[in-house]
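Example record used in the benchmark description.
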Amino acid sequence: MTNRAPPSLIESSRPARIKSYSLSRPNAEDAGGFLGPVEQRIRSGSIIAVAQDGYRGGMQQWRAIPVAIGGVVAVGFVDENQVIVGSHSGVGVFDVHTGARIKRTHDEDYSWYQGDPPFIGYPSGEGVTLVRAAGLWGGDLDQSTADGWTCRRVDGGSVLRAEGQPDCKIEDQEEYRAQGFSPGGSAFVYATSATIYLATH
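Model output (structure tokens):
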């Protein structure tokens, strides 16, 4: 496997008040497929600046977690607490708050890929559940929330923005797959070919 530069840092900024904060690159738990939840290591000095009084709460509007996953194809939201990921090796369901993997189904035949626009199908207690998805083969997720947040793709990443709030910027130079909010607007996912970023507020 070729070494690549780490996904860049997640930062939140507000001119003259907040500079940035950053997370270290995720560590993979194993070598293939879904690599599991990320253990975040905030290194000494990684919190570069602290907001002035009155803005600290704004910095915490979105909390983002990177999760290393091999071969991401599509992503979607099961609900406000779970994101589903279809990859070249199967399907995984992850907790949006912690990045922990909840379910894993091996499927290298892409039978999880359903319909046009695309859905991700995965077995549940009631049979196969279809989840709206977006990714390599099309589809879309919500691009705004009822409380005024929007997401916008920028060069090498995405910016979450709302009037009167500091931006939340996710930077990753890997190949883009999809981005979007959960139906209720409390969670956000940004996916590249190798990593998904889960943000909640």
